[in-house]
Amino acid sequence: xxxxxxxxxxxxxxxxxxxxxxxxxxxxxxxxxxxxxxxxxxxxxxxxxxxxxxxxxxxxxxxxxxxxxxxxxxxxxxxxxxxxxxxxxxxxxxxxxxxxxxxxxxxxxxxxxxxxxxxxxxxxxxxxxxxxxxxxxxxxxxxxxxxxxxxxxxxxxxxxxxxxxxxxxxxxxxxxxxxxxxxxxxxxxxxxxxxxxxxxxxxxxxxxxxxxxxxxxxxxxxxxxxxxxxxxxxxxxxxxxxxxxxxxxxxxxxxxxxxxxx
Length: 262
Prior knowledge:
Layout: H1 2-45, H2 53-74, H3 80-102, H4 111-122, H5 126-136, H6 138-155, H7 162-181, H8 191-220, H9 228-261
Helix pairs in contact: 1-3, 1-7, 2-3, 6-7, 7-8, 8-9
């Protein structure tokens, strides 16, 4: 038991140091990437004269974003982190290029401008305001995702003590709760941001539990007969899902009533 306690203390200390190093390291990398991407985008923008070119650039930007998400979830390779950094850097370039072209004196045609015109028309709707709030969580959510990727990469290292893997996965809910309540950088924390992040987590947990529960259900079922272990499994999953859906609906309903009572 004492040696396990020592492992836990060392591990928790290592996680805290890793989180601090990652915050500093990734922060500096992102700052440099944004600075370099701005220089490249400025250079490219000076050679773009076609007013419809923004359409093409915006489509490429969207496709690259989809590819980046695909790489994050589906691609398993030792070079995954390098590929992610390169893809994010390219996205930064195209994003900065779109920003520069849209702010020129010439009237460049833009999908974003058309969407923004629609947004201005319906911006006071509750659903639109909450959708905008969801998109505002994008950067911190992506950083949180990188932290989770690092944890899972550590989890596949072989020959580590079993207790290490247990406490490694035990830190996942702790990390997520830290993200919900404390990771806001220079931005002031408020109830709306906290509730939106909780909603994101509830939806994610629901999807994971549903998919995992469905897979386990068909793995454990024997010749169409429900065993006691399967019933116990489904009761446990249903209980967690009930609690998650209950909290999710409470946040949505309370927020909706609060919004319309102002």
